[in-house]
Amino acid sequence: MYNILICDDEQDIINALKIYLSDPNYTFYEARNGREALDLVSSKEIHLILMDIMMPVMNGITALTELRKISNVPVLFLTAKSEDADMLLGLNVGADDYITKPFNPLEVTARVRSHLRRYMQLGGGKVQSDALRIGGIELNDRSKSVSLDGEPVSLTPTEYEILKLLMQNPGKVFSPRDIYQTIWKETPTGCENTIAVHIRHLREKVEVVPAEPRYLKVVWGQGYKIEP
Fold first, then answer.
1. Coarse DSSP helix, strand, coil percentages of the chain, rounded to the nearest 5 percent
2. DSSP three-state, residue 199
3. Cystine design at 188: which of 44, 101, 122, 177 (Cβ 3.0–4.6 Å)?
4. Alpha carbon distance 192, 224 (integer Å)
5. pLDDT tens-digit series, residues 129-181
């Protein structure tokens, strides 16, 4: 059973998403603003959040910033096509993905399942190696922990999976399409910005000087790699 929190100030949007995601394995919680969402996360075990950006009392960006201090639960932003700048800002502060209004029911279902599967399986599946080490970065796939020079680093599930992919293949260049297809397990469409934001966020967490990365390198016109 998975607990999904839908946070939107329009009840019609909440009702529509609950219909699209109708599944006996899902229990839904509702919030009308970011403050209510934070209160629910503090009191309930939430496995995924669908969150609007523009809301009264506390908007989605502010709520996500506060949420990332206490939880790495997957967050999918609900955005209008005119909110590209807000969407990128959301990815920067820790969102895992976004869904554009008006919603395609099949896309909503696929994205929610993909993120739930990845989040819930972080502690399971085949482990290629309990510990991966590159320079000062250590990733332990048994405990799902990451450290930099011995200090713990808090990553979102998406950031963790991207870092793990790169660390398992040191020196190999992955295009944004490669990364998206491997992590999201979906056909990549317009994924360049999404991956670029996640890589930038990773650099801020595992690089001493993010502007001069030692580990996470860009190969212009090709993609990303981690230096062995």
1. 40, 25, 35
2. helix
3. 177
4. 11
5. 467 888 889 898 878 889 988 889 999 999 999 999 999 998 999 999 999 99
Q: Which two tokens stand for residue 178?
A: 């490669």
Phi, then psi, of 103 in degrees rounded to 5: -75, 140
Q: Is the predicted pLDDT of residue 184 greater than 50, yes or no?
A: yes
Out of 3.90.25.10, 3.40.50.720, 3.30.200.20, 1.10.10.10, select the CATH number for domain 131-226: 1.10.10.10
Q: Is 50 helix (H, G, I), strand (E, B) or coil?
A: strand
For residues 142 and 126, is the Cβ–Cβ distance under 8 A?
Answer: no
pTM over 0.85: no
At 41, list the tokens.
């996360």
CA 26 to the chain's CA centroid: 20
Which one of 3.20.20.330, 3.30.70.3340, 3.40.50.2300, 3.30.70.2190 gives the CATH number of domain 2-120? 3.40.50.2300
